[in-house]
Predict the structure.
Amino acid sequence: MRIYTRTGDEGKTSVIGARVSKDDARVEAYGTIDELNATVGQAAAILGRDNDGLWDDMLAQLTAIQHELFDCGSDLSYATPIPEKMKVTDEMALQLEQWIDLYEDRTPPIARFILPGGSEHAAALHVCRTVCRRAERRIVAMAALQPCPQPVIKYVNRLSDYFFAAARAANAMLGMQDVEYERGAQVFRRRS
């Protein structure tokens, strides 16, 4: 099987139900989801490099997220979404919330924005977070012009929160303290 088809040589590509320009808002949205999936794979490779069991839960979550990102891309690839064929559900966002809560319970409270980084593990997860935010912006821009399944927007919004919480948890697991942005105002309320 050859992976090249030559059908895109004129700057067009196929989505389910239409042929569009490769810079179409829908293609941009699911293309950024694909980019995000690659960064998640890179983060998983970093976490798994010297895994002594410490990262097992997070690695399992990242693998599940990669599958769900393919679901997001699939749902976004329909020119006109067909409800019974959509794969992303509200329950997927609820699962992310459970993981976020778990990680927040394991990290010290913060009052200000934090610098993305600390450990290599956390830095990789922060890259996932920023690419996820870009994917969300692309999806919202597409949704202003074309039909978009709402659960995808909700999922991607929650996913960026997951990456933030996971990055903080990674630093905590390695005994590294997050560095607060020193000139920032207090934007987070302390957990009770």
Remarks:
- The longest strand covers residues 12-15.
